[in-house]
Design brief:
The complex is a heterodimer.
Chain A lengths: L8 E5 L4 E6 L7 E8 L6 E6 L4 E2 L4 E4 L5 E6 L8 E9 L11 E6 L1
Chain B lengths: L3 E4 L2 E4 L5 E7 L5 E8 L3 E10 L2 E4 L6 E7 L2 E6 L8 E8 L7 E2 L3 E5 L1
Parallel strand pairs in B: 2-11
Antiparallel strand pairs in B: 1-3, 3-8, 4-5, 4-9, 5-6, 7-8, 9-10, 9-11
Classes of the chains: A mainly beta, B mainly beta.
Chain lengths: 110, 112
Amino acid sequence: DAKTTQPNSMESNEEEPVHLPCNHSTISGTDYIHWYRQLPSQGPEYVIHGLTSNVNNRMASLAIAEDRKSSTLILHRATLRDAAVYYCILITSGTYKYIFGTGTRLKVLA
Amino acid sequence: DAGITQSPRHKVTETGTPVTLRCHQTENHRYMYWYRQDPGHGLRLIHYSYGVKDTDKGEVSDGYSVSRSKTEDFLLTLESATSSQTSVYFCAISEKISYEQYFGPGTRLTVT
């Protein structure tokens, strides 16, 4: 199974952009890149996903490297409510395997 | 928010007793999943279901069984609870395989 590598923790100031990196050097052509986040005492929450092209939605943007071996989740203006653990996951098309890992704990400073 | 509820939300039970956790969805999604979350391990898949009466094992299925008699309900049973099954259990649903998953609020289970 393809694995992802994320920093254990990051800090950001409120109202500033945050770039959360993820390395996935063993990604295969049929792997989608998904991002989830988990706020304290809650279940994980879907954020965004992509295959090859950059993606935007109301929550965040996903920038995917041209060789697909890394990606970056971009929160355009961090708020205190964005403090959470962020998981980068590879999902092989047609499978159920979501390997969450331990993610990046984002701390947002007021 | 996806309509997913879990019950009970908290439970304390003794070693050796059977325990059933319930996941209920109102989204009519085909796929349902049970995960456990422990410090240092992230979320690990226990079992999943791809339709009524269709289930399969995940990576940590030993000691757990599941049943799905209706689209909306997915039950996780610990036949004889052990202290190593103390964990937070999350249910998730997805419309299709490999699509985004939506998670319930979790059940905190303590086995003493």
